[in-house]
C-alpha cells in the first residue's frame, strides 16, 4: 500500500492520514483511531488494519503488506458476505426458514 491509498473506504481516510494521526496521538486503544476522520466507524472492514497502524505508530514508513487492488477486492468480499448475513438474518426474523 502506498501512503495515499485509502484504508477506510467508508470515510476515505488514507494510510498517510492514519499514520500521521497514530504518530501524533499515540492512541492507547486501537478504537481511538476512529478519531481520525471517523475511520473504522462505517462497515468495520478496516478495523484490523487500523489496529496494525496504531501498533506500529512509531514506524514512519509502516505500510500494509498487500496491494491496493487486493485490499479493495477483500473489502468487496467482506461487504458481500455481510450483506448476505444480514439478508439471512432478516429472513429469519421475518419468519422464513
Ligand atoms: S472501510 Fe473503514 S469503516 Fe468501512
Q: Topology, please?
A:
Blueprint (H helix, E strand, L loop, with lengths): L5 E3 L4 E2 H11 L21 H9 L12 H26 L4
Antiparallel strand pairs: 1-2
The structure holds FE2/S2 (inorganic) cluster (FES).
The site of FE2/S2 (inorganic) cluster has 11 residues, from loops.
Coarse structural class? mainly alpha
Taken in chain order, the helices and strands follow as EEHHH
Give the mean pLDDT. Answer: 93
How do the strands line up in the largest sheet?
1-2
* Rg result: 16 Å
The portion of residues assigned to helices is 40-55%
Q: Catalogue the unreliable spans.
A: none
- Distinct small molecules: FE2/S2 (inorganic) cluster
Compact summary:
The chain has helices spanning 15-25, 47-55, 68-93; strands at 6-8, 13-14.
Describe the fold and architecture:
The protein has 97 residues and is mostly helical. It has helices at residues 15-25, 47-55, 68-93; strands at residues 6-8, 13-14. It has one domain. It is 47% helix and 5% strand. It has a two-stranded antiparallel ribbon. FE2/S2 (inorganic) cluster binds at residues 8-10, 39-46.
Please supply descriptive tags for the structure shown above.
single chain, 97 residues, mainly alpha, two-stranded antiparallel sheet, 2 strands, binds FE2/S2 (inorganic) cluster
Amino acid at each position: 500500500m502506498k501512503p495515499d491509498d485509502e484504508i477506510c473506504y467508508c470515510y476515505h481516510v488514507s494510510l498517510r492520514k492514519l499514520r500521521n494521526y497514530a504518530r501524533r496521538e499515540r492512541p492507547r486503544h486501537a478504537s481511538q483511531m476512529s478519531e481520525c476522520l471517523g475511520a473504522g466507524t462505517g462497515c468495520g472492514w478496516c478495523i484490523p488494519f487500523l489496529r496494525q497502524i496504531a501498533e506500529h505508530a512509531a514506524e514512519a514508513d509502516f505500510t500494509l503488506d498487500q496491494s491496493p487492488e487486493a485490499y479493495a477486492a477483500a473489502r468487496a468480499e467482506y461487504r458481500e458476505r455481510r450483506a448476505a448475513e444480514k439478508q439471512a438474518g432478516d429472513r429469519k426474523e421475518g419468519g422464513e426458514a
